[in-house]
Description:
Blueprint: E1 17-25, E2 39-40, H1 48-59, H2 65-81, E3 103-109, E4 113-124, H3 131-135, H4 144-149, E5 152-153, E6 156-160, H5 162-171, E7 180-191, E8 195-201, H6 203-215, E9 219-220, E10 227-234
Parallel strand pairs: 2-7
Antiparallel strand pairs: 1-8, 1-10, 3-8, 4-7, 5-6, 9-10
Amino acid sequence: MEKINLEILKKIPSLDTKVTLVIEPLAPLSMVSDLPGSFYKTLKSPTKKMLCGLFENILGWHISIAHREMIQKELIKLRKKQKIDFKKPQTGSTYIPLLMEYFEIELITVPPVMYYNDLWSKAYRRADAVVHPKGTMNISYELIPEKRKLPRDPKKPKQIAGKEIENLFKNNLGKFPIYYSSPTEREYINYKGKIEIDIEISSDILSKITESLRDNNCFYFGNSEGWINLTFKSHE
């Protein structure tokens, strides 16, 4: 496993460079900031936390929540010694960003846009013994004949009795998918051009990001369907 070098986080954040981040959407985007209910509404432009996630993805910082919590605690101690206030950006998703101190957004310029709604497949995992097996369409092939033999619900003859499907599920957990999908309404935004974001950023972080982009410039933004291309324009 490749080691992730986080030594740069020990440096005092210095926003010594101004650049314009140019995001070219290669597909419609859906940027959801708050935890939604039945409808996933997109923002018109990305938040700082979203950009932080993008930068960390470019750097290959694919770190679990548990490890991010540990790193954040160490950063709080370090910043206290450096006499710097550390703010926890914990609104919205459970994602804990690590680069929030190393850049600031100055201006976002958005081209003309078009909004539309579409169905998006959301992954669910329920502890309910009946809900989960009823939600998934897929099971291990050897269970198919067993499932067909199960007694039906007297009130709904086309459906298997709830207790029967519950027992089948509990006795064969490894033969059911861990997740099942459910169609959810989500808002998308189609840009008629590129998004330009003026930012102040640490030159050290910028150097690492641009270096990584030379090897790979194929990333998603907002969700796994929102592919983008990135470039930086210098202000010098």
